[in-house]
Amino acid sequence: QVQLVESGGGLVQAGGSLRLSCAASGRTFNSYIMGWFRQAPGKERGLVASIAWSGAYTYYADSVKGRFTMSRDNAKRTVYLQMNSLKPEDTAVYYCAAKGVTAAQYAYWGQGTQVTVSS
Question: Backbone dihedral region of 67: left (phi > 0), alpha (psi from -120 to 50 degrees) or beta?
Fold first, then answer.
């Protein structure tokens, strides 16, 4: 079992930056693939970024490549999403999620944190 708690959301002007954090509890955090998803009003939730258990492999959606950076600190059981050059279209609820390395789907989810980018 993994429990996830996000923080760091807020209101920022276009072009600004935010860093989201996701604190995890559970004995096997180091073995999980971690992901950040987002859901805007009226849209489906989609994967923004993910990171392997070692941190050596990351994935980014095309819409955030070059602007967002995902990282993890296994000693602190925390993953981060550094978001730079934010755009109004980045406005969404951001969710942290975890899945086992062989799992097809993310099984554990945080409660979400709101990110609002004003133009």
Answer: alpha
